[in-house]
Amino acid sequence: MTEKKYVVAIDQGTTSTRCMVFDSKGLPVCSDQMEHAQIYPKPGWVEHDAMEIWSRTQDVIRGALKKGKINPEEIASIGVTNQRETTVVWEKATGKPIYNAIVWQCMRTQEFCEEWKNIPGWGQDITGCGKVKDHTGLLISPYFSGTKIKWILDHVPGSREKAAKGELLFGNIDTWVIWNITGGPNGGVHVTDVSNASRTLLMNIETLKWDEEMAKFLDVPLAMLPQIKPSSFVYGSTKKDGPFGAEIPVAGDLGDQQAALFGQACFGKGDAKNTYGTGCFMLMNIGETPTPSKNGLLTTAGYSLAEGKCTYALEGSIAITGAAVQWLRDNLRLFDDAPDSEYFARKVDDCGGIYFVPAFSGLYAPYWDMSARGAIVGLTRYIRKEHIIRATLESICYQTRDVLEAMNKDSGVELSVLKVDGGAVKNNLLMQMQADILGVTVDRPVVNETTALGAAYAAGLAVGFWKSTDELKHHWASDRQFDALMEAGKRECQYKGWKKAVEKAKGWTE
Ligand code: ADP
Question: What is the distance in A from the centroid of ligand 1 to the CA of 170?
């Protein structure tokens, strides 16, 4: 038998699909990536063509194997990670979607959600009362899959009846990719993992099973839902006539943010990571109890390594972080490339007394004020472009502190080190400011591709390619640590200023 040398991750994201091959030390060997179309049928609506995604997935698999001259016989297993919440419904017999994939960002069910919030017993505030939070750990929001499935079944004639008979299948993108890669209409396995299922509004956060009351309320037939499995588990095998050209176990499945938590080796209670992209997503491992948040965070399944077991996470999502840097670049034209923000921000010692609250589309965690809008406060004639750029980077750090404070309160754990990843962590000034504003050490890993790595880890563990999470912990290597250098009094004084600025931005469109 050929020696197994690699684990493959398929990372199906919002804008592109990537295939990455990792070696036994968890280091990237080769990869391939392709974008797919973003479809905007109406303002606020976002769709993807699920067939295009499947086609790109096959292309990048072939591309990565070719680039790295990988013999498929040397691949131990395959893991999948995905854009979360995006919803596909397809015909079991043909593999044809009955509607475009409705993307997580799509707001088409906003009105339904507003009505839902007003139904006695279901509605809730950010302090966490309400049935939805009790059953699922989530909030009522168009973001999650449940109302998107309902929308498809409400709008495609005859679909609900077919779904009830098991002729239609629902999946998030993980399920769609795994079903296709294991044979599609010819025996494809219909599964998901707890981390993805926990974003549907349909999984009970305590039992890790589909919640009949939620499914009944949303009028979603249970027959169309995939089986919920651990994140690290042999779900099935690829086919010889598929893009891998061999039978390889498909053995890992994690939603992208949970995959990053796993890839960052946050295996202990209180370990946390923050991903800096368009927005920021902070997740903290809270162990085996799904403690509900009292401070505006979500409780979500982190990962599961065995049937019936789950490690939970608290999650704080921030809508606009790297996107504010893009806004300076594209709308104000203050520089040409996002990394130039560091060069300009370094030209001044501080923000000159201003704060920028980039609440372009409201404030998410921990405020959940959708009526907030962006504000720059404290302006004087002294202020130059460099101050505004620096204040934009600071706003990323302050928003992260807001979420971290909520996490510390909810978990009762005081974080001492924050692991970071994502596109913007290459900005050293941003990372130093982050450490100063939090008063904790910020640790940036050598391998920044933590999402794909997390999926690979889950897949490798399931087949014994790696023996334990302890072994994986040893792979994690720090590229650079940023220690908090700011004096505590100054830190608190500046944070007070930020809180005041947030108050100015709140409630703007009310
Ligand atoms: P996503 O996965 O959300 O598309 P990435 O992880 O690729 O995002 O990160 C890109 C984001 O990070 C962009 O919003 C960009 O403006 C920002 N960004 C990238 N590099 C830097 C940098 N050096 N300094 C500040 N922001 C940056």
Answer: 32
